[in-house]
Design a protein that fits this description.
By secondary structure, this protein is mainly alpha-helical. The radius of gyration is 18 Å and the shape is elongated. Helix 1 runs antiparallel to helix 2. The chain contains 7 helices and no strands. Helices cover about 80% and strands about 0% of the residues.
Length: about 130
């Protein structure tokens, strides 16, 4: 579960973030089915219930994915900055936008993240 949290919060690969987010939610659902006494019997203690942790993460789902979009863009920006022509940079930025929008549509990522992607794209395009 800690690996999932680390990848969700640190990966620049949006597909990885989406798959690990889903796995994390499944694991929290599973653990939420046990009482604190049952969990303690397995050596698992936590300051808040797994149900509360899941609710907190779900309440911040768009933020989690918007941050992942930002990390993905920063990674791609390094490639874009290395290109020599304006046209090459524009094409690379467009590919990033198209690929990221496709992943958002296919992965169950909140649709409001598309607005964030659009904002990132517009800001980046203005800097080319």
């Amino acid at each position: 579960m800690n690996d999932c949290m680390a990848l969700v919060n640190e990966s620049a690969d949006l597909t990885v973030v989406a798959s690990r987010y889903k796995l994390l939610m499944e694991k929290l659902d599973f653990l939420a089915g046990y009482s604190p006494a049952e969990l303690a019997g397995y050596g698992i203690t936590t300051p808040t219930s797994f149900q509360q942790q899941k609710q907190t993460i779900e309440a911040n789902k768009a933020t989690v994915f918007n941050q992942a979009i930002d990390r993905a863009y920063e990674k791609e920006r390094q490639h874009i900055d290395s290109l020599k022509t304006e046209r090459g940079k524009e094409n690379a930025l467009s590919r990033f936008y198209d690929n990221t929008a496709r992943i958002i549509g296919e992965s169950g990522i909140p649709s409001e993240c598309l607005s964030h992607l659009e904002s990132v794209y517009q800001s980046a395009a203005a800097q080319i």
